[in-house]
Specification:
The chain is mostly helical and 222 residues long. The chain has 10 helices and no strands. Helix 2 runs antiparallel to helix 9 and helix 8 packs antiparallel against helix 9. The mean pLDDT is 87.
């Protein structure tokens, strides 16, 4: 039931964000490495199980990048638009949001902190997206349709790819991973919004009000 789902997410969000930055950092600090590591491991298993198809997949990627459709799309700006959208969705590079989190770090070397933040783009886009693409393409699910005849896209095609090797457990593991990724994103953006709210008002006295409203919005949208 969407109402119960939204309520559950809102309660969990509230339990974390009402503890402030320290609690957000503790929760995300153990959750993100765990879920990212587990996801990469599972995607690698799927890819290795289909290792004989990887050369063909790499050739397909190159052909698709320089094919007629790609050139036509680039000429009309579609490649640029799609690249920007996927880049923002993947790692938020260029949005300025990561700087808010980086500014909260306790460090004696701002340059090193900057390097650490830069690795986020590399891991999100180069590592996670590449291994996901290899797992999907090598599993043979590209172009697969659902019962209604619609082509599988997004998380559905990823779940289908994992299920080819891991069975139904693969689908559950991807679903859990997506849920944790989404929850950590909610927590991160709460902090970003709270800092912006605090800056606009010039005081942190109303931060609790913001957290309460944010939790309600999570319930409505959840």
């Amino acid at each position: 039931d969407p109402a119960w789902t939204g309520l559950g997410i809102a309660v969990l969000t509230g339990l974390v964000i009402f503890g402030g930055l320290n609690r957000i950092a503790r929760v995300v600090g153990w959750m993100v490495p765990l879920m990212a590591g587990a996801y990469l491991l599972l995607a690698a298993v799927v890819t290795v199980m289909n290792i004989t198809l990887v050369p063909e997949v790499l050739l397909l990627i190159v052909k698709s990048a320089f094919g007629v459709d790609a050139v036509t799309g680039a000429a009309f700006g579609m490649a640029l638009m799609t690249g920007i959208k996927r880049g923002l969705f993947s790692n938020e590079a260029g949005m300025g949001s990561a700087a808010i989190t980086a500014a909260a770090a306790t460090t004696d070397n701002p340059v090193r902190q900057g390097y650490i933040n830069m690795t986020g783009t590399f891991w999100d886009t180069i590592v996670v997206c590449t291994i996901t693409g290899l797992a999907i393409a090598s599993s043979g699910v590209l172009g697969m349709t659902d019962a209604a005849g619609n082509m599988l896209i997004g998380s559905d095609v990823t779940i289908a790819a994992f299920e080819t090797v891991l069975g139904s457990a693969g689908g559950w593991l991807v679903t859990i991973g997506i849920t944790l990724f989404a929850f950590s994103t909610i927590l991160g953006w709460e902090y970003h919004g709270e800092k912006a709210f605090e800056y606009l008002l010039g005081t942190h006295r109303f931060n609790m009000v913001y957290r309460l409203v944010f939790s309600f919005v999570v319930f409505v949208l959840g």
